[in-house]
# Entry
Amino acid sequence: MKIANRDKVREVLTDLQIPALKKFGQNFLIDEQVASNIVSLLELKANESVVEIGPGLGALTHYIVNEGVNLKAVEIDRTLTEFLINTYESSENVEIINEDFLKLEFSNGKKVKVIGNLPYYITTPIMEKLIKNSDHITRLVVMVQSEVVKRFNAVANEAEYGALSVLLSLIGEGRGEFKVSNTNFFPRPNVASQIYVFDFNHNFSNDYIDELFRFVTALFTNKRKSIVKSLEIVLGNRRKAKNIIDKVNIESNLRAENIIPETYKQMFDLVLEEDLLKTVTYPRPKKRNKK
# Structure
């Protein structure tokens, strides 16, 4: 069902007797052409599998379903979930799940493409979850705050450069696509949005990426300190930190924002090689349930 227009959204929200909930970051897309253009970036083929994050009233869902794919839509709002279930009850290849996406477990098996309009207040946790489960994902198409795309694409020595920038650079290739004005939403948000497309292309296990992400994040936590001092804090040992810095052949007075992604991977691989993960001072991931 086409629903991406202001009058239809107002009508449905009134019928459902619900306001747009700020706690869930709900801003509903009200432009059909924008919705169609976003879904087209997935480059879907029949029978592919798609996960949609926070479908809301189904602005994107309509165009995804029309592509003849297998869709799993994950919606945290119970009322909206019921609305979507009723709307797509006759669609055999559509599964609507009432769940917090951050708690969703990706099962082993078929690769998926992921799409969603990410609530601004939890964009980073969602991206972290996607990165740490990226051996299940081929392409990601998300709408985020325009400023966030700069963080995703940042390179060393840029102000926006951080752990997310590093990890994304190491596991695939992303690009910012078209911007979406705040006038294309109801209610209208205070910021402009932009579409971000990312193609995952790596051979790392999810466990490896999880550990690498935690390692890089820990180093950026102490970004005002020199890299050798940051690594000393992470490893709890000055000598071992200095040894790794020497092996990757960088100056010890550099800071986290000066170091390119490939060097972070080299440092992490040395930590693995020398069996130093068991001594790190940051929280390690819990063991994953195998499915």
Notes: The CA atoms of residues 226 and 254 lie 5 Å apart. The chain has two domains: 6-200, 206-279. The beta strands are 28-29, 49-53, 70-75, 94-98, 112-117, 137-145, 172-180, 185-186, 193-200. The mean pLDDT is 92.
